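User: For documentation purposes, I need each entry recorded in a consistent format: the amino acid sequence on its own, followed directly by the corresponding structure tokens. There are two entries in this batch. Please keep commentary to a minimum and don't merge the entries.

Assistant: Recorded as requested. Entry 1:
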Amino acid sequence: MDGGRSKTRIRDRLDRLGIDELDAILVTHQDIDHFAGLMAVLEDYDIERIYWNGAPDGSTFDSFMTLSLDEGAEISVIGRGDVVKLGGMEIQVLHPGGLTGDKNIDSIVLLVQCGTVEYLLMGDAEMESEQSMIAAGMLEDVEVLKVGHHGSRTSTSEAFLDVVSPEYAVISAGLNSQYGHPHQETLDVLNSAGVQIFLTDTTEDPDGVTLTTDCSEVLVVEP
């Protein structure tokens, strides 16, 4: 799900994990810091399926779509109510319910469930996206929240947290982000809710901390 901006970093991470082919990749939306790394993945790995939200875009995302077509993979547009099946796992698509024309608001949101453990992956979804999912009754308690929009103040409202009530939150942001991510307002609301926060921008070890699961509880594995 997404690949960051760096083509070399995602190659290094996949190599370190011993991965040489991928069943599926998904790009949440058409911002380059989410799909540029996936272009390297398309060039270097065999991929069976590719998922995206179908939003038209006339920028460098066209290059990603060209590579996707050249890959020969099955390309699917997904939205609210769809289910992505990978092996024995069913991944629910919670958003978007319809396209607004705003890349972040239209970002794909996924609920990944393994047994009694649920991971909510927010992409760059914002408060408007959160309200849409709340109104549609799509949200429920989760154990792990991948925080929306790199911890921006435009995401992760108190109303949203009241519904999803995560134990752990992961914020993906670059060190010394030019946008100031993660914003202090977001950190404050997560701390007030008693959520344990993991930040990618301050992780010193290249392998970082791993949040894994045995499908009954979340296991925090230190490097």
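Entry 2:
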Amino acid sequence: MKINKFEDIQAWQESRILTRKIYELSESNKSFSKDLRFKSQITSCAVSVMSNIAEGFSRGGNKEFARFLFISKGSLSELQSQLYIALDLKYITKKDFDEVFQLSDKTARLISKFISYLKNTINAKI
């Protein structure tokens, strides 16, 4: 399948769902929504995941795109770490944690596969 725009990328699609879920969770608990610094940090991580996929796609080269996918994956790891904080502070339930963590893990696997594909494409040209 040819990717013509960043919206076609499955990892971006999954990260969009993840971002929406993070925003929903951050509003679902009064303590969570009042913890403005933490709420800002966790939502920024989620936004960063999808934003870096989009930005990398627009850079015009596989090597540069792979670099942005690594940044996106780093933001995703940061988000996963913050999910533990949200769970420990009882901002989210264990059920919500498991659901969102699973979604973030799926997104991470998609990004990793895409990075491998791009690296193989880069190496094939050398």
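Summary note for entry 2:
Helices lie at 10-28, 30-34, 36-58, 62-88, 94-125.
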